[in-house]
Amino acid sequence: MTVILSLLLVIAGAFGLIGSYGLIRLKDGMQRLHAPTKASTVGLGAALLASMLHGLANGAGFSWQELLVMVFIFVTAPITANYLSKLHLSSRRADLPETGTPRPWGTFDATLDDEEPVLPQRPQS
Amino acid sequence: MIRRLFPHPVLSLLLVGTWFLLVNKWAVGSLVMAAILATLIPLATHAYWPHKPRLNSLPLLLAYIALVVWDVILANIQVAKIVLFMPRDRIRSRFITVPVSLKSPEAIALLAGTITMTPGTVTADMNGDGTALLIHSLHAPYPDAIRDEIKSRYEARLKRIFE
Predict the structure, then answer these.
(1) SS3 A119
(2) Residue in B21, B72, B125 nearest the CB of A41
(3) How many domains does chain B have?
(4) pLDDT mean across residues, chain B
(5) Cβ-Cβ contacts under 8 Å, B125 against chain A
(6) Could you give the ipTM of this predicted complex?
(7) Which residue segment(s) compose the domain that B89 sits in?
(8) B38 & B62 share domain
(9) Backbone angles phi, psi at B106, to 5 degrees
(10) Does residue B68 lie within any of the structural domains?
(11) Model pTM greater than 0.90?
């Protein structure tokens, strides 16, 4: 058990380290955005798994709380990444590919939608 | 009456589950607190959820989550290789346009989140009416392949789950 725990912690540390190293090594803002996604997925996942199993190993019982940490990280991390990239987009508008649709990318779309967006409706029962 | 009290039954169940994960042990007192929260929070946020998100199949959603977790692990190793060993000037980063045929806002949000969480790709933007996503890929020698993989691997599954 100790071996598994230490292995998980080493994996967590290694991916955290690679993530931070990527921040230094990669060139521009958009590329650097990719590096921390590693630390926050496999790195954090391995650390949390180690924490869950640790309770099992020392007799305190399996701990479920870490699942919640994982869920919240997975739900919130894409939003931060999206905000950072939106910020970045405004400085390099010219490089962007076409949308392939009549409307431009959301960051530059000045069209006002008067009506409510059409959401899928469930038939009234 | 029951419908008025619990406008979103799934949300209520989810809140009970979340509360027990927070408390981290079984106790009757926690169940009471969970029940109170599961009643009050959906009522208080009802105004922001005028439409019920539609979910066709829970097992398929769970299978989807398992698939994404597996992909995240594999992609992590790939990206770690790129970060550590690929010469800096050989990394081909670029933006890719992915047309989206999903209509449900929940499904599009989940697709965008999936793309961001799998290392190597980040969802940067969506077009004005939600029919295309702008994706930045760390290393994309074949951008069309990445676009097709997202469409066939994730979008097709989400379509089955939500629409």
Answers:
(1) coil
(2) B72
(3) 2
(4) 82
(5) 82, 85-86, 89, 105-107
(6) 0.73
(7) 58-162
(8) no
(9) -65, -40
(10) yes
(11) no
